[in-house]
Design a protein that fits this description.
α6 (about 230-245) packs parallel to α8 (about 275-290) and α7 (about 250-275) runs antiparallel to α8 (about 275-290). The chain has helices at about 20-30, 70-80, 100-110, 175-180, 195-205, 230-245, 250-275, 275-290, and strands at about 10-15, 35-45, 60-65, 85-90, 95, 115-120, 130, 160-165, 170-175, 205-220. The protein is α/β, with parallel strands linked by helices and about 290 residues long. It is globular and about 55 Å long. Strands 1, 2, 3, 4, 5, 6, 7, 8, 9 and 10 form a ten-stranded mixed beta sheet that branches. The chain contains eight helices and ten strands. β6 (about 115-120) and β7 (about 130) form a beta hairpin.
Amino acid sequence: MNKKMPLVSIVLVNYNQPEVTEACLLSLEKITYKEVEVFVVDNGSKVENLIDESKFPGVHFIRSEKNLGFAGGNNLALRIAKGDYLMLLNNDTEVPADFLQPLVETFNRFPDAGIVSPKIKFFYSDNLIQYAGTSEINPFTCSGSTFGYKEFDDGRYDTENKTDLAHGACMIFSRKLMDEIGYLPEEYFIYYEEYDYCMMARRAGYSIYYNGLSWIRHKQSVSVGVFSPLKAYYMAKNRILFVKRNFKPFQKVISLSYYYLLALPKSIVYETFAGRHRNSLAILKGATGN
């Protein structure tokens, strides 16, 4: 008798991007792992940007009247999801049919696994990698590096191993973990919340894994834009919040000093010379808490 596979709850958040989200849902309809439930949280989209729910009768749709941010939107579904494992999947991704099984198997092979992310490739590229694991975030500079970034996917990252941080575009975690550490931290609104969740998991004794035997494609920053003032604002604001929530007192002093004296002026000058004056202002507002 075949053992029943564990149920996986997959959560997407949509904000004024019905076509993008529908493309993701169409790819999920083709996956070979069938023990899934799919949730789409509409995060305060305009009426004209709502998804036609009749196209996806098997999907659970949740509508929020206001934009709750990445964490808040996902948490609406996580609170009612029934899965043994829970996946956050960006709506601007598309997945191959066999992407889910290897991620579930990671939890079977490694009892300490709390969160797993697959290899992530840029959607609009010739097989270039966006994510193949990360290094530790430096507690003094609050910066890290992503393995494989903009490298051609030639198979060298087809590995399964511990990594320091998962990627918010696609991360799956166990219900056991969520029961222990709670839901995503909503203080961030958007950006850095997945890193904070990884830090919460690690403090609880879990490990983060990268599984390059699974991969997805990511359209990246479709909702807010790659160089948008909104992104600039929250990246600045939430970097500081992450430092305050996760670093030791001495590390906080060094990290914040480094940011305000070196990294912040550098970012403002860079955006100004690039002609993105609104971004410069947004970074300054985010960094000063305005």
